Structures are given as C-alpha cells and as structure tokens.
C-alpha cells in the first residue's frame, strides 16, 4: 500500500465557512502548525481571487517550513482565452508555490449551466491548462469538481474529464464531492469503477453536508486513494470539509496507514485548539478524538468499567492524540465516579469510608434541587474538602444589597451593590456599580476581598450561564448559574442554585474566589 | 425492502452527554415532539437506574401519543439471580412500556472484565432475560452491546450471543458500536457475515467517536438492517450518538427509504432547535441539513451559480427539512419572511411598502444585538404594529427600583420591587416582594397595572428562559430573556435583550402584558 499523503485546505476552503476569516499573520502561523503536525501539502489560498492570498504566497516563501509543500489553488483557463494569456493561470505561476492545484468541471450540467460551453470545449480547457502548468512548473494536481454528482449524472463524460487530466500528465487527480451529498457506499462503487479506467494516482476531497465527509475520505483510502484533502476541525463552506482531526487518527491507528509520526499525532488536540483560537470559534466539546468530552464518562456502569480497564468504553487511548479521560459527576453517577474524582484532586478517600457515602448523598440531594457538577469541578472539589474537614474559611460575607433602578421610561436601569465582608477580624464595607445586578455584585465582592487577597485580581470571569429549572412556574422557578473562571494558568467551573438568581450567582461567584484562594495556598 | 423504523434514544443515551440534563417535564415535551416527527420508537429511560426515569414512564402512560411506541431500557438479569427475581427486570415490567429493550454483553473481554462470569453463563443471562420478557410483555428488542468490537475480538462467540437472543424469540437484534470506533467498511463486512447466520431482523446503534456514526447507520441500512437507533442532534455520551437529524433526510431523500411523511420531514429543523432549546445547548450552525449554515453560501463563484440554479452547489432542497438557502454577503431573503409573518398576523403589508423595509432593517439591527424572534411571535407582532402605526399605548412605566438584600451569612437574600406607572393621567406607585429580582419586578408591575386592567390577572407566566450571549465577557455580557405567557385560551412568547438581566426581563415582561391588552381590544 502506498503512503497516504495529507493535503490541508484550512487556509483556502476552511475560510469559506461562515464566521471564519483569517488574517494574513494567522494564515502564516497556522501553516507552521500544520507543518509541525506533519501535513504534507498545505493549500494556502487562491492567488487569482484576492490580494490577501497573493500576499500569503509572497510571505510564506520567505518562511522556512520543515517538510510541508505549499500549494496554490486556481481554476482551469477561461473559455476562448489562450492558456498562456489566461490571468488566473499566470497568477498561479507567479505565486511560485511548490504545487499548483486547479479545479475543472466534471458535471455536464455545470458545463452547460455555469460555464455555458460545449462538453468538448470543457475537455480542452482541462487538458490545455494542466498540460501548460505541467510544462512550466513542478507538481500539479487536478481537483475534479463535483466528480461524484457528475458521475451519477453522466458517468461516461465524467470519466472523460479525468482522462483529459491524465493525458496532460497530472500528478494526482482528486475526486471531489463538492456539494457533500454522496454516501460512503456510493463512494466505494464509483471509485471502484474509476480505478478500472484511470491509472493516475487518485485523491479524495469530501464535504460534510450529509455528515459523511470523514467516512467518505476513509472509504476512499480503503479503496486505494493516496491523497486525502481536508481541514483542521472540518472548517469549510456550509457544513464544512472532511475533518483531518478525525481522519488522521483513524488512518494511523485503525487503518495502519502511517501518515504522520507518533509524536506529531500527540499534538493533534493542540493543533485543533490552536486553529479554533485563531479563528475565534469556541472548540466543539463533542468533537471526535480531540474534543474535551471525547473521553468523558458519566454513566456509573461505564465509569466503574473504565476504572478497571479503559478499553472497555474507549475506542482508543486518548493520550495518543493528546487528549485525556475525564470522569463526570451527575445524578447518573455512582460511588466509582466520586472515587475517581477524589483521585484526580489528590484527596485521600476510601470507597468504604462513610465520607464517600456522605458526599454521594449530598450530591444526589443537591442534584434534586437542580445542581449539576459536570461543568463545576471547582464547586465539587470544595464540597469534598468540606466533607473531609480540609476546607479553610478564608472570608465571611456578612451581607450585601443590590439596587437596580430605572428612573424614566427611556432610561436604562442602573445597578449598584454594597457589601460587607469580614476577614481575620477586620470588616470591609464597600460598594460598586455594574451592568446588571450580578455584575455589580461581582464587582463589589472582588473590590472588598482584593483588599485582603490581592492575588484575586488574577481571576477573570470567562463565562456565565443561566438555566431556569422547572418550566411552568415562570419567574418564581429555580435558577442554576454556572460560572467559568480563569487565571493565567487554569480554568475552573463553579455552580449555584436558588430560586433567586442573585443568590444563585452569589453562590457560584463565592465558590470561584474561594477555590482560587485554596489553590494559592496549595 | 422492508420499511426502516426509527428508534430515538435522546431521552436515555442523549442525556449521557456532558452538559445535558433534562427535567421530567422536558422529557415529556420532547417525547411529544418526537411523536409528531413520526419517530416510531421513543426510548424514555432506564427505570432501574434512577427515580426520574420511573416517573417518566408513569407520566407518559397518561399522555396521548399519536403513533410512537415508548420503550424502556435495561440490562440482562444479574448473574446468580433467577430472572423472575431480578430487580432490574421487575422494574422494566412494572414500568409497563410498549416495548422493552435490554442490552447484554457480546465481547468476551467484557464478559470476563466487567461481568466476571464464564462465557457460557453470559449466554444463559441473555437467553433467560429475553425469554422471560418475551413471555411477560409485548415487543422486545435486544441491544448487543459492543457488538462490533466483540466480533473483531472473537467472531464465533459474538455470533453465539446473537443466537441466544434469536432463540429467545426477540423481535429485533440491534448491533451496537458502543465505543464508536468502527469504520463503515468494517460495518459492511461484519453485517454481511451476521446476515448469513442470523434471521431475526437487525438494527444498528452507532456512536460518533470516529465521526462515522451517521455513515455507519446508513451503511447498515444499505445492508438491509431495519431499525436505526440515534438521537436528535446526535446528543449522547462522549462524542454522541448517530444523529437522526442527518440520518432521516438521507434515508428518505437519498436512499428512498421512507420513514416519516414529507410533512413531518419539513419539521426536522424545528425539532432540532426545540431539543437544543430545552437542553439549553446553543444549536450547531454547521450541522448537516438543519444547521443555519448548512445552505449558506459565501464564495462568489458559488453565490452567482446558486442564484441561477440552487442545485449547482446544494445537494438537496433545504425546504424539504425546513431549512433555507442563505447568501451571506447580500442577505435579501428576509423580505419574504416579513411578508409571511404579516399574513399570519392578518396585517396589511405590501412587499413594496417602505414599512416592510423599515421592519426588515429593524429586525436586522435587533438581531445584531442578540434578539431572536423564533420563540417570540408576540414581540414580533408588536414590532410590526409599531412600524405600521397601529400600536396603542396602554400604559407608561415611569420608573422602578429593585432591591435585593442579604442580611447575614446564612440568610437567603430577599427581593423587593417598587414601581410607578401612569395610565390615562393617573399614577400608581406600588411595591411587591418576590423570589429574586425578576419575580419581584413582575409582581410589582402586575399589581400596578391590574388596578387599571383587571383582565391582566388571567395572564400567567409559563416559562422564563435566560441565555447569556457572547461568552467570554463574564457577567458583563449581553443577556437574552425569552418569556412564555398564557391565559385560558392562548400562549405567546416575548423577548428582551440587554446587558442588564433586569432590563432584558423587564422588556419581555412588558411586551407580554402589552400583547394581552392588544388582544383584549381586538
């Protein structure tokens, strides 16, 4: 079996996604990350379509990549224009990439509807463009746009377009499922037929519109395809492209087709997070292999089994892609979840210790009131510390007041909070404003406590979630507040539940600061 | 080809997902939605594992579902316990569901590691449990846990466990890829072999740990499997279960295997959104078929092509699943939505009327600030009335104050609101308490307005939802409040957005009462 090569198009197809727009500097930084991950080909952009992409190729030629080749993307020549005079083709050559990839039309419907030329002319466009590029540059790939739809509509013509590319001596022909509507068994059937008629090495470019992009890519490799195109995190137009973060580990670990080194594979989660960060998109927790929930266990049956042997409920070792096993606490969890958590927090707990049962009872009782500790590890750790008697009381809140006032029909309300805290015998009484009552209270609590514990300044509120619990009682119903806080090194979650949203927020805010103080002491 | 039946486990496996926890009321509401969508089997929970699930079966038996059958989930009997004395089996029968589904072990490794019994004993567990259930209840399904991993490890034994189930006369044997590590071509090969040895109808239950859950399910149906298990939006443990929102349209539209009606299929996006909303999880834009980006076009080439013919870059018509085409640069598609709404509200609106454009601009500006009118028809109708000049001002809020006070460390905070309103020249200044600031404000507003409009007493707050909008700014970020109100005859939704939760709640509360007053007048 030939080695499968990875072709990343995060920087081109990936930026077609809604909400994703990368700066030139971002693109350069991502290119380096992809190079380190061991990606063989990095498609940097379409220099014929916008100036940012022209600048990218200028810039990247000055950077030293370890091993990756940089590819420029473009289209076949225009109709009725000689190939050597075609602007798009000239711009591609001028960008001086290591590889040139151009796309052409496979689907007769598109030749008529979009290009508005004869089927014969389209074959000439493909042959001319590739033949010219092959004679004036190095490696050249051909993206057969809409290949699968084209094949389904007119298999003879679709294969003819591939034959035109093959005749031009192209290095790889990539079968594209541009609209993403093809299913894996169709991919198998169609590639099987193509292989009897085309000898040029084949590649696959799939989209996720049927949630089958990864499966289609893997199916194609199983059939003998040697190049896989995709993007990090599956970013791309509409539902996205084939997700390389899922394809790489399956190729490497399940199909035994090595494409990167084991060390590079261990960076997969890191690369995924890095690209999310630069694209300013929150990571998808549930993402296969690299998501934070990918190896998170909640059901008691599963937890007790993975404690004995992780293979029981994990399809692979998470460490291989830089991820880790997590145990979640919920009303579905049993004693083994509590034990696993205690271990994670370095707390000394015996499964027959009455404290374990007390904690479990406590959790169940709190969850009945609406608590949920899945996103609130810090509150859970404090709870365990309290049960074990190892919780230290750093401060005492004597009382607070929050006042929201609206002074006229067109005036927005203002919020002000006053607070009284006691630390080591000293009382601090202070006040602060905020946008809304919770923000005002948060500002006042911090202002008072930072006087005694200046390190609390490091704590930032990263996320604040509110869930109103049993529907049907309107505003009198119970409220759960989940807060995520962080400092330079860590992130932690806390939770509060009350029929009063101010009270619920207060409980979660206090836990967050209390947790930070405990960590500072450790 | 036999009709494929859909088996939804959102209410059981779906709740194993991190961050997802459904209240009993939510589960009942979702069951109705699934029933309306045409799902044939709804797995409601595991009555043997927690009291919430026992309550679900009690509750659902009193509700009238149109066509769906309700299934209860459980495990085979314990080792060394007679089946008729096994608590889990007894609880299943006591729940009196339409269908009972139990899981058993297929993988020899699990039999030894998790059950710690002999391979022979495990076969007895499976046979006994299913045989007993078949004799004491109606339809019985068998989930062969870890079937694919078990088959890969020991194909002979794995098939023996299925034969034990078949011998007990079970109605369907579901092959489970519990750890989600199996790839589509493995599914094809393994099911092909099973079909030569098992004649009982087969089903598929797949997980998304390799991002192949949907592909695996479709591959299995292609092989002849007649039951597909999955969840709405793919919710489920770790990376989730097979996503029914992707499976249903592919089965129906691509594979021509009808499983719901065309009308039901058009509700798919609505059902997806509904489940996200109740689970309090933001919808995934990029989700295949139902995501808001699924038919969104950004690239210039694509946009001009789809303007001529959508088939060029769309694998199917979005309307078939209740979605729509969006053009990201020039979103002109909104006008028809406004027209449709105006018609719904019996408002006289011309598409060339400048008011239509004004409403459209207004909506766009408000949506930019975080408004969302999907669950807030009443706010939308008031907005249109204001633009048309047919809105009547029933009252004026001059101002309000809300005070939350906590008087000691162990004291719960109290909330009090004062309000001043003006109706027809008369001013009313009053005060009320409540559990939390929003409830206190709501009580005060009603108390003041009911003096002038006693019919407002009929209005009940049915639901109150809070969503904090762009994460990352903590408690200072923007807040959206959705309120559902009702009287004896109707229900209506209103919305408010502000960086201050009190203000956002106030806006939605006022709209709700204003709407009622307009309806009383009509």
TrEMBL record, chains A, B:
Gene Ontology MF: a single term: (R)-citramalate synthase activity
Pathway named in the protein's UniProt entry: Amino-acid biosynthesis; L-isoleucine biosynthesis; 2-oxobutanoate from pyruvate: step 1/3
SMART domains reported in the protein's UniProt record: LeuA_dimer
GO biological process, one term: isoleucine biosynthetic process
Keywords, in A-Z order: Acyltransferase, Amino-acid biosynthesis, Branched-chain amino acid biosynthesis, Isoleucine biosynthesis, Transferase
Top-level taxon of origin: Bacteria
EC number(s) on file: 2.3.3.21
Catalytic activities: pyruvate + acetyl-CoA + H2O = (3R)-citramalate + CoA + H(+)
Protein's UniProt keywords contain Acyltransferase: yes
Domain Pyruvate carboxyltransferase stretches: 4-266
InterPro entries linked: 2-isopropylmalate_synth_dimer (IPR013709), AIPM/Hcit_synth_CS (IPR002034), Aldolase_TIM (IPR013785), Citramal_synthase (IPR005675), LeuA/HCS_post-cat (IPR054691), LeuA_allosteric_dom_sf (IPR036230), PYR_CT (IPR000891)
EC class of the enzyme, as a word: transferase
Pfam families noted in UniProt: HCS_D2 (PF22617), HMGL-like (PF00682), LeuA_dimer (PF08502)
CDD domains: DRE_TIM_LeuA3
Similarity comment: Belongs to the alpha-IPM synthase/homocitrate synthase family.
Xref: PANTHER family: (R)-CITRAMALATE SYNTHASE (PTHR43538:SF1), ALPHA-IPM SYNTHASE/HOMOCITRATE SYNTHASE (PTHR43538)
Protein name according to UniProt: Citramalate synthase
Organism: Pelobacter propionicus (strain DSM 2379 / NBRC 103807 / OttBd1)
